[in-house]
Amino acid sequence: MAKLGIGFIGCGGIHSAHAPHLVDKDDAYIACAMDVSEAAVKAHCEKYGTKNGTTDQAELLARDDVDAVVVCTPTGFHQQAVLAAAAAGKHILCEKPMAMKVADCEAMGQACREAGVVLQIAFVRHFCNEWLKLREIIQAGMIGRPVVWRSVSGGSGAHTQWFFDKEIGGGPFIDGAVHSYDWARFMFGDAKNVVTDIRRLKANTTAWDTGTVIVNFESGDQQLIIWSWGLPGLGYGVPADSAHDVLGPLGSIMFPGGNQLRVNLADGEHLVEFEADSGNDWFGKQMAHFLDCCRTGKQPVTGAKEGLEATRIAEAALSVGDRPAIIEL
């Protein structure tokens, strides 16, 4: 079996979660790495043993040994990279969020369909045993339906300034929360409306960084996100308390960690076990799925539709800024 040659478009932080899963494999290898930073390309090649590197995206996409690409650029540049890769006939694993706008997602999906290439969005929770077990418990009705999934967190946010740029990174209510929007859709189905009240605490940034987003689903289930990236610093700066649980008419689900979820019912506590895995495992399983889809032409479990619909929720949440509003979907 011939190895699939994979090219990286972007060699920044998130690419290091993907690259290790293409080293010393029987079915794939990193054929070329690209970044606008020559230093980032050099660091990648030294770390992963990649023989070919470039700062020119067109040069990477013109290579015959590149069968597929992993797009790891800042979100605001995803559309351009995906459209170029599709035009070059390359399969694509694109980091989340799919794009900043629904219209961009639609263009990306159409281009990949017309080119006949795989487009997978990197919603890595779909490859995590803990998240899959949570969905299983909820859909089995163990705590009844409808449920309210609550997520509360606060801190200084991402390590790099572009995450706080309104046009390129968009802040937590698209960059981080898009994982949760996607997972809520996977558990509950289509969203009905978004209730949002967000604001900006950080100075000298343009993205909304703090507030509340409530997503109501056609099923009657609800997602509540109260997040902030507005505290001082970047990355591991000033912390705040956090909470994460699911409430239903028959009980609650809590997250003690390890390989258990705690389900609290009227008759007491029930510990539901699963096979624990690490974040590194999630990315490995995700990459294996992508390579299989490239070889077989199968539709990825997180394709263009999943990327677009999660972006639809994010776009609605960000559309009103600091004016509380209800946006119908």
**Largest sheet: spatial strand order:** 14-13-12-11-7-10-9-8-15
CATH fold type of the largest domain: Dihydrodipicolinate Reductase, domain 2
Distance between the termini: 46 Å
- DSSP strand tally: 15
> Given this structure, which CATH class of the largest domain is correct?
Alpha Beta
How many independent structural domains?
Answer: 2
Overview of this structure, please?
The protein has helices at 15-18, 38-48, 57-61, 78-87, 102-115, 129-139, 177-188, 279-296, 304-318; strands at residues 4-9, 28-34, 53-54, 68-71, 91-94, 119-121, 148-154, 191-199, 210-217, 222-228, 243-248, 251-257, 260-265, 268-273, 325-328. It is an alpha/beta fold and 329 residues long. Strand 11 (243-248) and strand 12 form a beta hairpin. Helix 4 runs parallel beside helix 5. It is globular and about 60 Å long. The termini are far apart.
Provide a short characterization of the protein structure:
With 329 residues, this protein is α/β, with parallel strands linked by helices. It has helices spanning 15-18, 38-48, 57-61, 78-87, 102-115, 129-139, 177-188, 279-296, 304-318, and strands spanning 4-9, 28-34, 53-54, 68-71, 91-94, 119-121, 148-154, 191-199, 210-217, 222-228, 243-248, 251-257, 260-265, 268-273, 325-328.
